[in-house]
Structure formats: C-alpha cells, structure tokens
Amino acid sequence: MSPVEIRAGTILPAQREVLTLHTADGLSLVGEIAVPVDGEPAATLICLHPLPTHGGSMDSHVLRKAAWRLPALAGIAVLRLNTRGTSSREGTSQGCFDAAGDERYDVAAAIEYAEFNDLPNRWLLGWSFGTDLALMYGLDPAVNGAVLLSPPLRYTRPEHLDAWAADRRPLRAVVPELDDFLRPAQARERFARVPQAEVVAVDGARHLWVGEPSVRRVLDEVVAAAVPDAVPLPTEWAGPFETYDELGTPIQSQP
Question: How far apart are CA 95 and CA 115, in angstroms?
C-alpha cells in the first residue's frame, strides 16, 4: 500500500472505548481511551482540555488528533475526558464547571483509571485551562510528569509551581510565540521558579494551534517528553485508516 499524507481528519488504527469515569464526589464523567492495536503502550497521556466555558472539551482538536494518531505512530495510549459539566460529541459529564476547584476530583478520577488499568508511564497533557488543572492537581504518585500546551497560568498560584519545583518531576511547557495569554518570554519568567521546567517556544504559533504544521509540531513536542525515541513522528501512513470531517462524521475508509 502506498503511503498517504496524514491530514487533519485522518484516523489511524487503535483500540478505542468510550468510558464513564467516577469521581470521589459522586459524578460520572464522559471519557475515551485509545490504545495501540498491537502490544503494550510505551506511555500514557491523560488529556485535560481547554476552558469548557469557551468551547473546550475532550474533542478540542489537538487532543482529538493525539487520540487519532499517537497510538499508531508512537505506541501511546491516550485517555481523554470531559471535566464536570463539559459536553462533546461523546456526551456530557455530570456536574457544573467550578473554575478549577472541584475539577480536582476529575483529574484524580482520570489518574485513578489509568493506574487501575495498568496503563504505563503516565503523563498529564494539559492544554490552556487543562494546564492549570495539571499544575494544581497533577502531583500524584502515579504520574511521571506533565506537558503543558499554551499555559495561561490563570488559576495556578506560586505555591503550585513551588510544589513542582520541590518534587523535581519533569515539566515541559510548549508556548506559542503569538499566544493570547502568556508568551515565551513571560513563560520563562513565570516558570523560572521551577528549575526542571523546560519552556519550548514555537515560532509563529498561536494559542489554539490552528493548522496542520502547528499540530504536527506540538504532537512532536508532547511525544518527545514521554517517548523520546518516537520523534519525529511520521507524516505519512501506509496502513489502514479512516477519514472524518470536523464534525466527526466518517467520509472515507481505507482498508
């Protein structure tokens, strides 16, 4: 089979299952796990989405494309969830948005699922609002480190950064040059109190990582943290795949 270019709507093979996660405060959350078809995962990403009051969900495009590509391209399991009160194509999680307060239980439920199911080498992948959740609630013994996409540091306080500094677990912040909230120079200043934090500036990129070049770059940076030997990710695929439109409707299948 001749290789084809991986595009925005390309879905590569994985075992996928829609989940219900249960929080310690009694809510049911919508989630999905995508794992490699063959063999054990090399790592696990626990995805924490952008601000739900501004359209963020487990289907936010970078997280969706991580689930569509990384099980096949890098052997990575991708766990996504809708935090409380958040809706996506898969459904709506119970509860109400709590401005990074009770979302602590949502983060804990996702980590618990990954740990209970023996998903290895667990990394938090936060995007925008999700980076605050990772920084505030991610220092769980079951987590190896965190990757932060477009961190606004809106809810994160200095004591959260100090806790990461004392803990020494890896922390990578991937910051767009043209971010609306926190640009690379500001990010380096804010993260200076975390000695192990790596700030990666991406020229020309914006907060929402729109466009395939931005998506490819950011997925490379994510994978480089968790499975360094898997980068750079391929941009072509020679096996079976599906193609979906932006609404999640299948429009092509290649056996």
Answer: 24
* Contact call for residues 87 and 94 (beta carbons, < 8 A): no
Task: Identify whether the C-beta of residue 59 lies closer than 8 Å to the C-beta of residue 124.
Answer: no
pLDDT single digits (tens) 124-175: 999 999 999 999 999 999 999 999 999 999 999 999 999 999 999 999 999 9
Q: Residue 70 is encoded by which pair of tokens? A: 């990384």
Question: How crowded is the C-beta side of 11, counted as CA atoms within 13 Å?
Answer: 21
Q: What is the CA radius of gyration of the chain?
A: 17
Distance between CA atoms of residues 198 and 83, nearest Å: 27
pLDDT tops 80 at residue 1: no
Domains detected in the chain: 4-254 (3.40.50.1820)
Question: Distance between CA atoms of 6 and 3, rounded to whole angstroms?
Answer: 9
pTM: 0.96
197 exposure class (CB count in 10 Å sphere: 0-12, 13-18, 19+): buried
